[in-house]
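In this section we walk through a basic example: taking a raw amino acid sequence and producing a predicted 3D structure, encoded as discrete structure tokens. The instruction is simple. Fold the sequence below.
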Amino acid sequence: MSDYGRPLEFGYFLVPEAEAPLVELARRADALGLDLIGVQDHPYQRRYVDTWTLLSVIAARTERIRVFPDVASLPLRQPAVLAKSAASLDLLSGGRVELGLGAGAFWDAIEAYGGPRRAPKEALGALEEAITVIRAIWSGERNQRFDGEHYRLKGAQAGPAPAHPIGIWLGVRGPKALALAGRVADGWLPSSSWATPEVLPELSARLDDAAREAGREPGELRRVYNVNGTITGGSSGGFLNGPVEQWVEELADLALGYGIDGFVFWPEGEQQAQLTLFAERVVPEVRRQVALERGA
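The resulting token sequence is shown next.
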């Protein structure tokens, strides 16, 4: 593991519960100077608003923060139309959109909503095809054609092109999925619930090996880590559960020792208070410590 020296970014993971003050929380994250807002995508959850609609409203009501689905449920998001949506919002927001993608999960719920039920191999194949389709639509070029097993383009008129090169970040963990990410993606979106410090070295090594085999430098890939936990006023309760000082130490270690360059905070507890603590006390100190270590 190593530090790839990329600039650090910090964000907020917004759970799209219909009764939550979603736009208020997003505006607070923007005002606090965070870089990213990620929104999980589970259309079949009856208590959740639609992720893409929420991202669009957030982009309209904020000034500078970037938005992305964390991660889009590909089986329920037809990739050519998803590409069009992302490019459109990127244009309308002045280049403030990234795209997190997943192969799919919760297959019973996906099937209940009319989506396909895919075996792991099929889901991974569909994810790879979707990336090809999405980039073709972003090209803005006419007469796009693609004949895949899961998706097709038959003379599609692509465009408009997005305002900036939108990053495709994959929320994946299996060996073959990590190989795909290292080969073709712009970034990786692990979560602390499954990509713990104990397994991060192995997962990252697979990503790096795949990148090198594809003729890429591992440092080209963004590594944006969803960090789920609580900032407390007391003693440590374990990884990502403790006082500000513990959070600073753990995130700085993840940046310097594990190559993580983005942290999206998914707090437990009272959201406004946790968000403020993270942005005002954790983020500046992590930036300072990482800068000091890199300078040394």
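Looking at the output, two observations stand out. The chain has one domain: 9-295. DSSP finds nine helices and twelve strands in the chain. In the next section we compare this with other chains.
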